[in-house]
């Protein structure tokens, strides 16, 4: 009889990055013979899209029932254990873990980025919760170091999105721009970004990507409006289809990429595209440090970006990142004993 795995994560929200992680995880688990169920914001869509069982992530009865039936709870991937989004979000994912442990289930923290977490109570609760887990894996060295300070044993792995199958590059010379809403973005940031993209790439077609609808669309249209104002002659389009297939295909045509989201930067690196990161969150800052990416903090007051753009267009493409893969052996050695 197949063992059952329940996955708790940011599932069913039509977010490209989380959908990729979930797709890679479920593909692997099913290949290993596990029966998979997910707690989702859209159970019907999740069941149809990923061919797994699904339950409503807000329904306590369904949640408790699925925890009771599972052999393993997997929490992740992404950045679930943080309260930059909200304390309620952090509490939700912690409670799922605690309920699973109360029912004597094995719990795996799957390739997460830990933090930022503020407030002594929330840090203490997170540390306590992680101490109860059977296997803790993290996707970046900063999270690994943080858990080391907390005396939590963990394993450092890559982000599962590195395993996404990509297409052969068909470099059409396009410049990709991927943006998302962010409360602390400087009010002049978009205006200055458009200014310098126009100065350096006026002869290229600009492809504006939404990675989560409808959350990203407002700022995508804001960028387009500013582009039409400053550089009315520039060719551009907005890609609203944020399915995995559509975005993977769209990125295969890029020459350069400007991106805010973690998984947009990662996919650009996977393709070997020069990536200009626009960090809004600590996880993107970590990625910038790891891969030495040119970057501009979206919350800082805009300045003269000439030197940064000048260095960026000299950047060489690097296909070596296509060889980075997630180490499934850490998970398999635990679950396939």
Assembly type of the shown chains? single chain
CATH topology of the largest domain: Rossmann fold
Q: In angstroms, what separates the terminal alpha carbons?
A: 15 Å
**Could you name the CATH homologous superfamily of the largest domain?**
Glycogen Phosphorylase B
CATH class of the largest domain: Alpha Beta
The share of residues in extended strands comes to 15-25%
Rg calculated over all Cα atoms: 20 Å
Shape: globular
CATH architecture of the largest domain: 3-Layer(aba) Sandwich
Order of helices and strands: EHEHEHEHEHEHEEHEHEHEHEHEHH
What strand line-up does the widest sheet have? Answer: 3-2-1-4-5-6-7
Structural class: alpha/beta
- Tell me how many strands there are: 13
Low-confidence runs: none
Largest sheet: 7 strands, parallel
Whole-number tally of structural domains: 2
Helix content: 40-55%
Mean pLDDT, as a whole number? Answer: 95
Give the number of helices.
Answer: 13
Q: Overview of this structure, please?
A:
The protein is of the alpha/beta class. It folds into two domains: 4-163, 3-Layer(aba) Sandwich (Rossmann fold), CATH 3.40.50.2000; 174-322, Rossmann fold. It has helices at residues 16-31, 43-50, 60-69, 87-102, 120-132, 141-149, 189-201, 217-230, 244-251, 262-271, 282-291, 306-313, 329-335, and strands at residues 4-8, 35-40, 53-56, 72-78, 106-112, 135-138, 155-156, 174-178, 206-209, 236-239, 254-259, 275-277, 294-295. The chain is globular. The two termini are 15 Å apart.
């Amino acid at each position: 009889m197949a063992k059952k795995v329940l996955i708790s994560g940011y599932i069913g929200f039509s977010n490209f990055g989380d959908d990729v992680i979930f797709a890679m995880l479920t593909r692997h688990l099913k290949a290993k013979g596990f029966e998979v169920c997910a707690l989702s914001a859209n159970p019907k869509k999740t069941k149809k899209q990923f061919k797994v069982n699904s339950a409503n992530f807000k329904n306590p009865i369904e949640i408790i029932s699925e925890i009771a039936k599972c052999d393993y709870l997997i929490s992740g991937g992404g950045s679930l254990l943080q309260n930059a989004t909200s304390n309620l979000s952090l509490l939700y994912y912690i409670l799922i873990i605690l309920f699973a442990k109360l029912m004597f289930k094995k719990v795996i923290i799957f390739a997460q980025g830990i933090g930022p977490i503020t407030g002594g109570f929330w840090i203490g609760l997170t540390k306590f919760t992680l101490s109860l887990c059977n296997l803790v894996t993290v996707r970046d060295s900063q999270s690994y170091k943080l858990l080391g300070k907390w005396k939590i044993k963990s394993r450092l792995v890559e982000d599962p999105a590195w395993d996404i199958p990509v297409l052969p590059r068909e470099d059409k010379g396009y410049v990709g721009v991927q943006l998302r809403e962010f409360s602390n973005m400087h009010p002049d940031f978009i205006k200055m970004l458009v200014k310098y993209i126009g100065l350096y790439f006026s002869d290229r077609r600009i492809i504006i990507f939404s990675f989560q609808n409808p959350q990203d669309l407002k700022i995508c249209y804001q960028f387009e409006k500013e582009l039409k104002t400053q550089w009315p002659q520039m060719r551009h389009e907005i890609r609203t289809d944020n399915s995995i297939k559509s975005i993977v295909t769209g990125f295969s045509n890029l020459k350069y990429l400007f991106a805010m989201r973690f998984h947009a930067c990662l996919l650009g690196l996977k393709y070997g595209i020069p990536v200009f990161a626009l960090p809004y969150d600590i996880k993107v800052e970590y990625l910038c440090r790891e891969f030495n990416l040119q970057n501009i903090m979206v919350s800082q007051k805009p300045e003269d970006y000439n030197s940064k753009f000048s260095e960026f267009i000299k950047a060489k493409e690097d296909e070596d990142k296509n060889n980075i893969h997630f180490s499934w052996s850490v998970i398999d050695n635990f679950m396939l004993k």
